[in-house]
């Protein structure tokens, strides 16, 4: 099996898994309980949180753990809106569903939401953003930092120059960023950020929410004093401990792993070029530094992506179709629509997302299989 | 897909086109959905995946018997998911 869907989820690392299992055994108490087992669990929770904060370049007073990256983004978007319902929330046309559907919910509640366009590579149209921020009373700009479908990494410096000027809060969905770069949480303009453990070889079911000021958003979940009263519910200690382990492992040797991924990506694209298949790379140029190199979104001309992904799966290659169910139809990716991928390529677009563990032999197999399927079957 | 299928019954063409668009029995889709996903109410993406599984079974049947035409009544057990009369002829065309 060749797994090329790491942007969807990553397998938990063996060290993180061991830490998770050990924590389940060693810390049976509720961190809120005032007895020996509870106190031990609370101490473990606190020390783990401090370590996670250090790894992300912040302090434990600026983090809470959530049930997912989506929950972290929901908490900020809905929480900032609840804090000031008369103001506008601005986002982009290429957001993850956690953001896109949260702002749709706010719109359904009578809130004001504006969408900012992106260019053909997925970068925010800074002129359009400036106009939006200047012409509306905006409380929050919420953006996906590294796009989950096409890999575009937004330019924080340029965006934050605009949010600073207009005194707008900035939330970044950094779920895809963490496994591939040092996240700049120390950047003064980032007010909120979302992370997800299972994207960096941690367990599913744990997200991280960074905030600069906890008084600027309301809680989504009530019913306990946990997480500064910003996210009620008994802490998932085993998952949190495993998250810390996975994050530490991810950050160690990050540059070397990224170089390996980039080499594999270059090899994949040059091998594809040699096949003569008619394709386009969706998103920024692969040589750009303003992109994730593990995400390669390819549009194959006049191909149905669902059938291609199915045929690849039959040969042991797992990739993402990037589709979503919408009532009675299968929707074309809103991200690919936003960057205006032409009709003849948009329906044949697949996302290949790598890790540093693949080999050139794996890539050879993938490219040969693609060539065979497209030439012979589709 | 490069292949097309033509379904005829009593000299009447019932279907011609991409096998993924074949008429599949709702009951068969539900049964396969339960088998694959333990879900009796599959979404569109899962339904299209099931259709691909069915088409794969159909193509494998052609390949296994090294034919380009078959009578559904001879393969009732394996191709029962196609929603056409029992003795329909299925022709494979590239």
Could you write a compact summary of the structure shown?
Chain A is of the alpha/beta class and 378 residues long. In chain A, 42% of the residues lie in helices and 16% in strands. Chain A has helices at residues 14-26, 36-55, 69-83, 97-108, 126-135, 156-165, 226-229, 237-251, 254-275, 305-314, 334-338, 343-346, 360-377; strands spanning 2-3, 63-66, 88-92, 112-116, 138-144, 169-173, 192-196, 207-211, 279-282, 295-300, 317-318, 324-326, 329-331, 349-353.
Topology:
The complex is a heterodimer of chains A (378) and B (94).
Chain A: E1 2-3, H1 14-26, H2 36-55, E2 63-66, H3 69-83, E3 88-92, H4 97-108, E4 112-116, H5 126-135, E5 138-144, H6 156-165, E6 169-173, E7 192-196, E8 207-211, H7 226-229, H8 237-251, H9 254-275, E9 279-282, E10 295-300, H10 305-314, E11 317-318, E12 324-326, E13 329-331, H11 334-338, H12 343-346, E14 349-353, H13 360-377
Parallel strand pairs in A: 1-11, 3-4, 3-5, 5-6, 6-7
Antiparallel strand pairs in A: 2-8, 7-8, 9-10, 10-14, 12-13
Chain B: E1 4-9, E2 12-17, H1 26-37, H2 44-65, E3 69-71, E4 89-93
Antiparallel strand pairs in B: 1-2, 1-4, 3-4
Helix pairs in contact in B: 1-2
């Amino acid at each position: 099996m060749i797994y090329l869907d790491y942007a969807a989820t990553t397998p938990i690392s063996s060290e993180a898994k061991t830490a998770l299992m050990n924590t389940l055994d060693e810390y049976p108490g509720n961190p809120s309980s005032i007895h020996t087992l509870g106190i031990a669990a609370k101490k473990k929770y606190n020390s783990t949180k401090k370590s996670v904060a250090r790894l992300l370049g912040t302090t434990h007073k600026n983090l809470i753990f959530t049930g997912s990256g989506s929950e972290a983004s929901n908490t900020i978007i809905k929480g900032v809106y609840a804090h000031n319902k008369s103001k506008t929330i601005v986002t982009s046309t290429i957001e993850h569903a956690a953001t896109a559907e949260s702002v749709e919910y706010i719109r359904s509640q009578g809130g004001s939401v504006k969408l900012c366009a992106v260019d053909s590579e997925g970068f925010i149209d800074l002129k359009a953003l400036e106009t939006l921020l200047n012409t509306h009373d905006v409380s929050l700009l919420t953006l996906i930092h590294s796009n989950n479908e096409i890999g575009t990494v937004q330019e924080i410096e340029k965006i934050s120059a605009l949010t600073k000027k207009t005194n707008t809060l900035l939330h970044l969905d950094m779920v895809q960023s963490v496994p591939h770069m040092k996240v700049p949480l120390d950047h003064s303009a980032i007010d909120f950020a979302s992370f997800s453990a299972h994207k960096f070889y941690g367990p599913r079911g744990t997200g991280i929410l960074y905030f600069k000021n906890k008084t600027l958003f309301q809680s989504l979940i009530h019913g306990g004093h946990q997480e500064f009263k910003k996210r009620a519910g008994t802490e998932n200690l085993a998952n949190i401990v495993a998250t810390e382990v996975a994050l530490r492992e991810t950050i160690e040797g990050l540059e070397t792993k990224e170089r390996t991924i980039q080499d594999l990506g270059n090899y994949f694209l040059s091998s594809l070029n040699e096949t003569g298949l008619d394709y386009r790379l969706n998103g920024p140029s692969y040589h750009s530094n303003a992109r994730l190199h593990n995400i390669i979104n390819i549009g194959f001309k006049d191909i149905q992506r669902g059938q291609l992904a199915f045929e690849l799966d039959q040969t042991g290659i797992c990739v993402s179709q990037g589709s979503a169910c919408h009532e009675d139809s299968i929707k074309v990716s809103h991200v690919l629509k936003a960057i205006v991928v032409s009709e003849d390529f948009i329906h044949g677009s697949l996302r290949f997302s790598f890790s540093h563990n693949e080999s050139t032999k794996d890539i050879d197999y993938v490219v040969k299989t693609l060539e065979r399927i497209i030439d012979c079957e589709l | 897909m490069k292949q097309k299928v033509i379904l005829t019954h009593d000299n009447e063409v019932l279907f011609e086109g991409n096998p993924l668009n074949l008429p599949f029995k709702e009951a068969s889709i539900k049964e396969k959905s339960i088998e694959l996903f333990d879900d009796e109410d599959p979404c569109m993406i899962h339904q299209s995946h099931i259709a691909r599984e069915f088409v794969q079974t159909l193509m494998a049947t052609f390949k296994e018997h090294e034919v380009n035409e078959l009578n559904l009544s001879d393969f009732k057990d394996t191709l029962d998911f196609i929603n056409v009369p029992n003795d329909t002829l299925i022709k494979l065309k590239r």
